[in-house]
Write a structure and sequence with these properties.
Blueprint (H helix, E strand, L loop, with lengths): L4 H18 L3 H12 L5 H9 L9 H4 L7 E2 L6 E2 L14 H16 L5 H13 L2
Antiparallel strand pairs: 1-2
Helix pairs in contact: 2-6, 3-6
Amino acid sequence: MCMPTSWRLMLLLAVAPAVQAQATTPAQLQRTYDAAAGTPAQPERGRLFFTQRHGGEWSCASCHGAMPTVAGRHVVTGKPLDPLAPAFNPQAFTDERRVEKWFRRNCKDVTGRECSAAEKADVLAWLQTLR
């Protein structure tokens, strides 16, 4: 069954803004997290958050490496992970939905809860300092 052209156009126009809305840059995400946190990010606090364990077995660095400028590897599955620092991976932090999905999953693995906006802001600020 073929969809009428006018319906396909309406569907395309309805979906296009949603697709565009998720495209972003690390700097845009940084501003969003800073605003949600109500305070500017602190890169050093982000580095500490990233490298320390939070009462569990893992830290962010367990999979991404203490200096996430090179590929990492998931400690359980062995799945290779692209560098996390935006300067070493142009695709990092460019899809807001994907970023939120992975922050949610990884924060729960590392901290046992979702990360706060301030924690996300701090980690992202530190990652953006890596050159």
